[in-house]
Amino acid sequence: MIRIADGWKDYAVLATGDGYKLERWGEHLLLRPDPQVIWHAQRDLFSYPGLAAVYRRSEKGGGAWEYKKQLPQSWNVGYKDLTFKVMPMGFKHTGLFPEQAVNWEATGALVRRAAARGRRVKVLNLFAYTGGASVALAKAGAEVTHVDAAKGMVERAGENARLSGIQSGIRYIVDDCKKFVARELRRGNTYDAVVMDPPSYGRGPGGEMWKIESELFPFVKLCMQLMSDAPLFFLINSYTTGLQPTVLSNILTLCADRKCRVEAYEVGLPTQENIPLPCGAGGMCIYE
User: Fold this and answer.
1) 187-203: per-residue pLDDT in tens?
2) Which pLDDT score is estimated for 127?
3) Among 126, 154, 205, 262, which is least packed, fewest CB within 10 Å?
4) What letter does residue 127 receive in the DSSP assignment?
5) Is residue 174 within 8 Å of 149, Cβ to Cβ?
6) Residue 141 pLDDT > 70, yes or no?
7) Could you tell me the domains of the chain?
8) pLDDT score at 204
9) How far is CA 273 from CA 40, 51, 153, in A?
10) What is the pTM of this model?
11) Burial annotation 149-175 (CB, 10 A radius, 16+ → b, else e)
12) Is 90 helix (H, G, I), strand (E, B) or coil?
């Protein structure tokens, strides 16, 4: 099953093919590589009218942006009542993953239902990047602890929160996620919900290594110990190639220490070619 983030007005996938996707971010058109796009383009994407920038990979690894017209250093895009800063960054990124709107909607609905019952939901967001989930959950009424090892990304998360009118409700932590979770367990702190978006590979601020194939299962099991006596949900996002939704479902099923409903799915985006663009996988334990 694929869940499509079809609620965007400031973002759209215009065309795809030959390893690239052509996107509209507000008024600006960007062409970026996408490893899932193994079919041929229906037209020449590199000569698309109005194209502002292309991210070209290097044969030596990495890559760089090639600008075809002048762009602002950054600009804002909106999703419903949320606002995010986007900009061309290293390794083809813009600072936002639009397909995650499907998870913002699902988890936000759970938080709002809990709030309607008088609960203030505490959420731990790990590998939290520029805070899309943190902002969406805080806007829904949650109290969010946002943890990421990259100081610059945490600062961007604060900017996104302020752009969305959020002045409080998010605690920002620059730390290695594994070390932070271990400390929270020693402190006896708990959370009603956990969100994590673990990288395939990564390094913490002290050089700590992360490899998802060996680290994810024990880390999820550890994080399950942080769940409160009245948990709400546990969400895993993954962009690791080959890590299917069923893998996430199995991990959650085996790690959950109490009864929950497990859902696993692809996440994706609609395109103007009338085909869905797959963008990763999600798995969620729901305790309601």
Assistant:
1) 999 999 999 999 888 77
2) 96
3) 205
4) S
5) yes
6) yes
7) 2-92 (2.60.40.1180), 98-286 (3.40.50.150)
8) 63
9) 12, 18, 33
10) 0.95
11) bbeebbebbbbbbebbebeebbebbbb
12) helix
Note every long-range contact of 88-97, with CB atoms under 8 Å and residues 24 or more positions apart, other chains counting.
88/30, 88/53, 88/55, 90/62, 91/62, 91/63, 92/32, 92/33, 92/55, 92/63, 94/25, 94/30, 95/129, 95/130, 95/156, 96/130, 96/132, 97/132, 97/279, 97/280
Q: What are phi and psi of 132, to 5 degrees?
A: -55, -50
Length of the chain: 288
d(CA 114, CA 142): 9
Tokens describing residue 110:
């759970």
Residues 221, 256: Cα–Cα separation, whole Å:
7
284 phi and psi, to 5 degrees?
-140, 135
* Top-confidence residue, 212 or 31: 31
Q: Report the distance separating Cα 141 and Cα 218, nearest Å.
A: 30
Report the Cα 274 to chain-centroid distance in Å: 24
pLDDT of residue 259: 93
